[in-house]
Amino acid sequence: MEIPREIALRERRPTYSEINLTAFRHNFQLVRRLAGGAKVMGIVKADAYGHGLLEISRELEALNVDYIGVGFLEEGIALREAGINTPILVLGGVAGYQINSFLEYNLELTASSKFIASEIDRRARRMDKKAIVHLKIDTGMNRIGVNYQRAADFMRFAGGLANLIVKGIYTHLAAADSDPEFTKLQLNRFKDVIKSASAIFSPTPIFHVLNSAGLINFPEYCFDMVRTGIMLYGMVPSNSLLGRLDLKPVMSLKSEVVFLKRAAADEGISYDLTYRTKTDTQIVTIPIGYGDGYPVRLSDCGQALIGGKRYPVVGRVCMDQIMVDAGDAMVRIGEEVTLIGKQGDDCITVEEICSLTGAIPYEIPIGTTSRVPRLYIKDTITDEK
Ligand SMILES: *Cc1c(COP(=O)(O)O)cnc(C)c1O
User: I want to staple 224 with a disulfide (CB 3.0 to 4.6 A). Which of 21, 206, 215, 305 is the partner?
Assistant: First the structure.
């Protein structure tokens, strides 16, 4: 059974993720500035990339975000039931049987084919409602959407459905962080879509394309709205974009020393004894493991900050625990351990973990499981001018 976050938090487990809302705010304002006058959609799919769907959405609403984007219907319903009033677009594909719930909860749908558009129209008519849709055009990602070459026909078709309100038209970039050439091709294809749309719709819908990588590399293509996720959480989509913007990481992952001992030289540590102590040393045990989302791939290569210094994670990462070789450091039971984030003058970044494990940045915070309580903090870092 999943441990509800409320219990996880109440019971004050030594391991928790710290979510810095001041950093989030800072990143949001940076996105606002980059977007110029365009609207901003804050993406909160997958539990706000592991940062907490409701808490982050409330924060976005407090920041007057224009739109909230989620992946699936259920995420949108959770937000409506929690009292979020901001327009919500569900980015994923829609199954016919979900349409009624979309309309009941006032959620905007992605129409990615003629078939689903007419299905939405039919169900909306039966409920005597108008469905608000964003038409998805595929300009090269080949995931969902109507191929750009058939976009004009699709738009005319959707525009003619009486119970649809076409509020937006969008596409998604496949390689905005790695392939500027192809990205330009996608942007140009979308510009043609906009041209045809202008002849079909009056007033014209909201056109939106850029994700975080797109906004960092092609801020001149914001159109009417940008759809940013990862950068709001203070990360970049891939290490190639590191250092381009002053983003502040939002999540830290922290724990405590629960056990320590001296181990003699040439002792094996953890499952399969993959690590052997070189000398007599101090082995510290931390109550976090892959069951919390701490990657197994950090076995024998991760690091932990204790007392402001780095120590190696030794041996296999277990489900609930890891061991750290703290050498001759003065370590106390109950002392704070930072697995991701700042401690003293040092910082373990998500990017660093990605370099060690081959993960992409998205995976790391999203990977934290429901038994890791989240602690929301606001700190006093002053927003730079
Ligand atoms: C997830 C998603 C985004 C946000 O992507 P980031 O890289 O996190 O900024 C934007 N648009 C769509 C359609 C998405 O699925």
Answer: 206
Distance 176 CA to ligand 1 centre (A): 11
In angstroms, the CA 293 to CA 275 distance is 22
Task: Per residue of the chain (385 residues), give pLDDT as tens.
Answer: 667 767 766 777 899 999 999 999 999 999 999 999 999 999 999 999 999 999 999 999 999 999 999 999 999 999 999 999 999 999 999 999 999 999 999 999 999 999 999 999 999 999 999 999 999 999 999 999 999 999 999 999 999 999 999 999 999 999 999 999 999 999 999 999 999 999 999 999 999 999 999 999 999 999 999 999 999 999 999 888 888 999 999 999 999 999 999 999 999 999 999 999 999 999 999 999 999 999 999 999 999 999 999 999 999 999 999 999 999 999 999 999 999 999 999 999 999 999 999 999 999 999 999 999 999 999 865 544 3
251-377: CATH topology: Lyase, Ornithine Decarboxylase; Chain A, domain 1 (2.40.37)
Atom of ligand 1 nearest to the CA of 212: 9
* Residues 174 and 141 sit within 8 Å (Cβ to Cβ): yes
Which residues' Cβ are closer than 6 Å to ligand 1?
43, 45, 91, 172, 211-213, 227-230, 237
Q: How far is the CA of 347 from the centre of ligand 1 (A)?
A: 27
Closest ligand 1 atom to the C-alpha of 227? 10
Q: What are the structural domain ranges in the chain?
A: 36-234, 251-377
> For residue 172, which atom of ligand 1 is closest to its CA?
13
Residues with catalytic roles: 45, 271
Which candidate, 166, 170, 168, places its Cα nearest to that of 158?
A: 166
Q: Give me the count of residues in the chain.
A: 385
Cα–chain-centroid distance for residue 95? Answer: 24
**Whole-number Å distance between alpha carbons of 158 and 164:** 7
Superfamily of chain region 36-234: Alanine racemase (3.20.20.10)
Report CA(184)–ligand 1 centroid distance (Å): 18
**Helix, strand or coil for residue 170?**
strand
Mutate to test the pocket of ligand 1, among 70, 211, 350, 363 (most ligand atoms within 8 A of CB): 211
| CA 228 to ligand 1 centroid distance, Å | 6
Integer Cα distance of 28 and 48 in angstroms: 14
Going by C-alpha positions, the residue among 42, 326, 80 that lies closest to residue 211 is 42
